[in-house]
Amino acid sequence: MNAFANLRPFDGVTFSLNANNLFNTKGFTEAEEGSIPTGGIVRARSINGRTVSASVRFDF
After folding, report:
1. What does the alpha-carbon distance between residue 42 and residue 31 come to, in Å, rounded to a whole number?
2. Number of domains comprising the chain
3. What's the pTM?
4. Could you give the C-alpha distances from 31 to 1, 3, 20, 39, 55, in angstroms and in order?
5. Does 7 have pLDDT greater than 80?
């Protein structure tokens, strides 16, 4: 689950907050092989843990 918020306290200024993997869930995605090979090892990519970013934007 991801979440974001934008706040414009006045014209020309925007505060942003973004969170990915909000509940810090463990998981895998994009396995390399289509089936389990005879060696029994499958390479897969894990999803990132929780990441949070914030920014301030000035428009003039």
Report:
1. 7
2. 1
3. 0.67
4. 21, 26, 21, 15, 34
5. yes
Amino acid at 42: V
In which domain, by residue range, is 39 found?
Answer: 3-58
**Closest to 6 in 3D by CA, of 53, 15, 22, 20:** 15
Per-residue model confidence as pLDDT tens digits over 12-57: 999 999 999 999 999 888 887 777 788 888 888 888 999 999 999 9
- Percent of the chain whose predicted confidence (pLDDT) is above 70: 100
User: Running DSSP on this structure, what letter comes out for residue 6?
Assistant: E
Q: Which two tokens stand for residue 25?
A: 């869930």
**Which residue, chain included where needed, has tokens 């509940």?**
23
